[in-house]
Specification:
mainly alpha; 3 helices; 51% helix; globular
Length: 85
């Protein structure tokens, strides 16, 4: 039997609560690069790409510092730094 908490899971299969928590972490990580919160319509495709590329799993939520650091690195590399005004 597959243990979903430690097996990579695609973003589309994440429970809505996990997607909401990831969005909160991402907004906190992006706050350093943007002057206003990102719209959910802007953030969702970025989070999906980051989640799937890094082959994350539900267990990754157990270390919020590491997850936030990963999101900061990923979001800064997609050009959010240029969005700060």
């Amino acid at each position: 039997m597959n243990n979903l908490s430690v097996s990579p899971i695609v973003y589309a299969e994440l429970p809505s609560e996990a997607r909401a928590l990831l969005s909160i972490f991402a907004q906190a990580a992006a706050a350093r690069y943007v002057s206003h919160p990102l719209k959910q319509s802007e953030l969702t495709p970025l989070l999906e790409a980051i989640w799937n590329r890094n082959r994350l799993c539900l267990h990754d939520f157990s270390d919020p510092c590491r997850l936030t650091a990963l999101l900061e690195t990923e979001l800064s590399s997609v050009g959010l730094a240029g969005s700060a005004q």
